Amino acid sequence: MTHTITLIPGDGIGPEVTEAVVRILIATGISIEWESHEAGVRAFERTGQTLPIELVDSIRRNRVALKGPVATPIGTGFTSVNVGLRKALDLYANLRPVWNLPGVHARFQGVDLVIVRENTEDLYAGLEHTVVPGVVESLKIITERASTRIAQFAFAHARRHGRRRVTAIHKANIMKQSDGLFLESARRVAREYPDIAYEERIVDAACMHLVMNPSQFDVLLLPNLYGDIVSDLCAGLVGGLGVVGAANLGQQTAVFEAVHGLLSAVLMLQHLDEGEAASRVMRGLSTVLTEGSVRTRDLGGSASTTAFADAVCRAVERQPPKVRTSL
After folding, report:
1. Pairing between strand 254-257 and 247-249?
2. How would you classify the pairing of strands 219-222 and 165-170?
3. Could you tell me if 63 and 254 are in contact, meaning their C-beta atoms sit under 8 angstroms apart?
4. Is the Cα dihedral 56, 150, 167, 222 positive or negative?
5. What are residue 159's phi and psi, to 5 degrees?
6. H or E stretch including 182?
7. pLDDT, tens digit, for every residue of 163-176?
């Protein structure tokens, strides 16, 4: 079977790391046809749009995309391409599994948790304006529909993957109506899953507990802003953004980013029911990381992206000790 996948190389280091991941996927032997489209700065320079309609149409048609990092200006300039893409395709669930990779130094070992982040609203709705000079108002949007939908996703994921607990993260002690609505929605869904334990944590306390003892958590359910912050915090527990993957999922489409994590591509292979190819990438990656002679700078080495990709490609068909392959 040949898969047609939209490829978004991205900005900055994006094209370099995207090319490396594509080579690793080719080494698995699966058949992929790529439709490459630009976004962000590169797209704006060519078309005057940061999110061209032909890119969105390509993802709708192919239903799967692999995306590199796209820069977002800070304080000025165009709005986030990532947020725009999630809204345009209704990619309502951001899924980030977090667990230790062999051979990667981390502050904690035995980490095994999943971040489920609502992906379409909250402060990321981008509704802000100047009230008077020197005063800016930003609107936090929480709806029952989106909160219920993401809670259902979290509990269904927990049941499907044998997870035992869902923890809803909130600040309802202060934002009693908005975060309160998020919690009310999660509680209603929790009652439909009596086999899954449910608890709630205030976001600041949850962050403290995560950096003290992450093993106490299983599946974390969060609104958009808290989810963005906590997911990066959790990546730091196991070695950084380069050793975790992420998927943005909707009813019809899925976008896997950013590919510098490589595990995002593994998530994509699993989504495509290419489990053997996903296992081969994981075996190859595990071999290279365990041997330790080829590491990129973010992992304490000096190898280039190309050299690391070469090493993983060579290792893809080896048969190292069995490693975990399910994200």
Report:
1. antiparallel
2. parallel
3. yes
4. positive
5. -65, -45
6. helix 178-190
7. 999 999 999 999 99
